Each structure stands twice: as structure tokens, then as C-alpha cells.
Fold:
Amino acid sequence: MRRWVVLLCLLFLLIQGTACSKKVDNATVRVGYFPNIAHAQAVLGIANGTFATHLGPGVKIKTTLFNAGPSIIEAIFSGDLDIAYVGPSPAINGYVRSGGKALRVIAGVSSGGSLFIIRPDSGIEKASDLSGKRIATPQLGNTQDIALRGYLNNCGLKPRETGGTVNILPLRNPDILNLFMRKQIDGAWVPEPWGARLIKEAGGEIFLDERSLWLDGRFCSTLMIVRTGFLEKHPDWVKQWLAAHIEMTHWINQYPKKARFDTRSRIKELSGINLPEEIFYDAFSRIKFTYDPIATSLFSYAEMAYNAGFLKQEKPDLAGMVDLRFLNETLKERSLPEIK
Structure:
């Protein structure tokens, strides 16, 4: 009898141990981001342990590097990501495609860092000169592509595919640089550091800095999104992640020289890309790091995307897309101004 009792006790402990082991293994936050300047909080904060410190030793961080926003959204849809850093256009598309169910914008990451670069010999001096020109963007329907189409619309111009006279060519950023140098395109609307590279490596000129189109020069270029199911299940982890994000944002803005150096070094480690200091620092100078999602600019991007025909026929309702409850709670706990 005593033997059976001992065996039952051992079996119970084994089951409990297995359950605890699974519980520890499941204590993981899966994060996606780009190894680039505009995602500097993630690039630096994951490397130096800031996010791990805030989450505590009981929670693991699993990171995945991406180079395109749509891939991040697909990973959110499939449940493979919990938190991600991504541009406004993919975030809008993901929210609309899921009927507002898949994700929420919970904070900002960066503002600025988007340039319209032209060749000096392109003959482009004003907006009307864009008629008949070949202008590249990084991807059909991406944030810079939407911005260009919105700009053309405001200037009374249209892309050739919708009956207009401006040739918009969606190309990979490296291909844009190559074709720009070979004089096969007249200009390009690109994110940093590609704007700085077109200037320094290809002799391009700034026709327009996108900051000039927005109130106070502020617009969302990168956002933090969270999978809705994860937000509902782990609000404490979300707040801890936000606390680390706020800390990293303040540190970058307080120590920009150190932040530039560390970001460049870390991007080289992650991607193997070693941009010259002059190009990297020039690009870094045009980006402002912020946890404010600048929601008004996000909704403006959605309006431009809708007008360009990239969203559903019916104008989407984005009223629930931005959820600042957790950000503002975290800011309030640190006696910092809340985001309205």
C-alpha cells in the first residue's frame, strides 16, 4: 500500500513539473521589427537588455527580423507575433483586412525620415514638372507609395495607371538606387537611409522632405502594434514592454550621438550592412523618436490609401485602431504627460 502511495506521489510531482515546465516555456513575448534606423528602440533595447529587464526573468523574448511590413502583418494574422514595429500603411491594411479584429496600435516609434529625391538633371523644379516623369517608390501601396500618390492628388496630378501622366514604379530600394545612378528613373520617394544614400552615392537632390507636408513636421513613420488576442491575455506584459519602449525613446533623444553610434553598430551586426558614418548620421538626423503614434497622420494616411484605391470600396472605420490606454497608464505611473 505504501509503495502505491509513493508511486502516486511521484506521478503527481511529475505531472506538476511538466505543467510548470510548459508554463515557463509559454512565457514568451514574440516580437518583430526591422534592423533599420526607424526601429531604433527595438534595435537597441533588445540588445542591451532594457526590454528583458522590464519583463522580468520569467518572460522570454523571441525576436524575428523582417524587411517588409506585409510579412509582419501576415505573422500577426497567423499568431506567430505578439508585438511588432511596422509602418502605418501595413498597419492600416492589417486592421482593415481583419475587420478591426487582428491588431491595435498602442504607441508610436518614429516620425519623419521620408524624402522625395530627384536627379539634378531631371528637369523637375515644381510639382507640375512631374508629368511624364518616372518616379519610384519602395513597394506598391507601402507608406511612401501612398504618400507620393496623396501628394500627386493634392497637386492635381494622377498616376498613369489611373489615367494620369506620372509613371510610378514600385521597386526594391537597392534597385531604386541602381536605376537612379543609371538615370533610368527621374526621382524616388523613399525612407531613410535610402534618401541619404541617393543623395550621397547617386548625387540626388531633395525635392521634398515629407515633414514639410505635415503639421509641425510630425507624422508617424513607424508604429508599435500588438496582436489583439495577446493584448487581452497579457495586458501586464504589454505595459512592461511599453515602459521599456518609453525608457529607450527618452534615452535616444537624450543621448543622440551615443544612440547613433550604437544603432549603426547594432544594425551592422544584425544585417551585415555597414553604412558609412556620413550617410548613416545624415539619415538619423531626419528621424524623430517618439512614443506618440501621431494618430491624426495615421488617419490621413488611411484617407490617402482609400483615395488611391488600396482599401475596400467602402471607407473603413478606424475608430478602434488606436488604443492608448496602456501607454497613458504607463506614462501616468512615471509622471509623464499623457498622449491625447
